[in-house]
C-alpha cells in the first residue's frame, strides 16, 4: 500500500478558512471576521476537510502543518 503525498489543491478562500481554523475561533467568529454567514463557513470547512481527507479541526490543522499550506 502506498500513501498519497500530493498536496491537496485548496482555493484561496479555503486557505483563508484553514488559517482561521488554526486559531481558537468558533465558526460564528470566523464568519463575522470574513463577513459571511456561519453556514457559508461551515460549507467551506466541509470542503477543506474533504480535500484534506480529514473529519475534524485537529486533523485539518495537522494536515495543514504536514503540507505547510496554512496561510
From TrEMBL:
Q: Which PROSITE patterns match?
A: HTH_LUXR_2 (PS50043)
Among InterPro entries, the record links this protein to: Sig_transdc_resp-reg_C-effctor, Tscrpt_reg_LuxR_C, WH-like_DNA-bd_sf
Cite the Gene3D superfamilies for this sequence.
Winged helix-like DNA-binding domain superfamily/Winged helix DNA-binding domain
Q: Which residues form a coiled coil?
A: none
Give a yes or no for keyword Transcription regulation in this entry: yes
> A Pfam family matched by this chain, by name?
GerE
Domain HTH luxR-type as annotated: residue spans: 3-68
Determine if Transcription regulation is one of this entry's keywords. Answer: yes
Q: Enumerate the UniProt keywords alphabetically.
A: DNA-binding, Transcription, Transcription regulation
Taxonomically, which superkingdom? Bacteria
Q: Which PANTHER family match?
A: DNA-BINDING TRANSCRIPTIONAL ACTIVATOR DEVR_DOSR
Instruction: State the name under which the record lists this protein.
Output: LuxR C-terminal-related transcriptional regulator
Kindly list the organism's lineage.
Bacteria, Bacillati, Actinomycetota, Actinomycetes, Micrococcales
Amino acid at each position: 500500500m502506498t500513501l498519497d503525498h500530493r498536496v491537496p489543491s485548496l482555493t484561496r478562500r479555503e486557505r483563508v478558512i484553514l488559517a482561521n481554523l488554526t486559531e481558537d475561533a468558533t465558526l460564528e467568529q470566523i464568519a463575522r471576521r470574513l463577513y459571511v454567514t456561519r453556514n457559508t463557513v461551515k460549507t467551506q470547512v466541509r470542503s477543506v476537510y474533504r480535500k484534506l481527507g480529514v473529519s475534524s479541526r485537529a486533523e485539518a490543522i495537522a494536515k495543514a502543518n504536514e503540507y505547510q499550506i496554512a496561510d
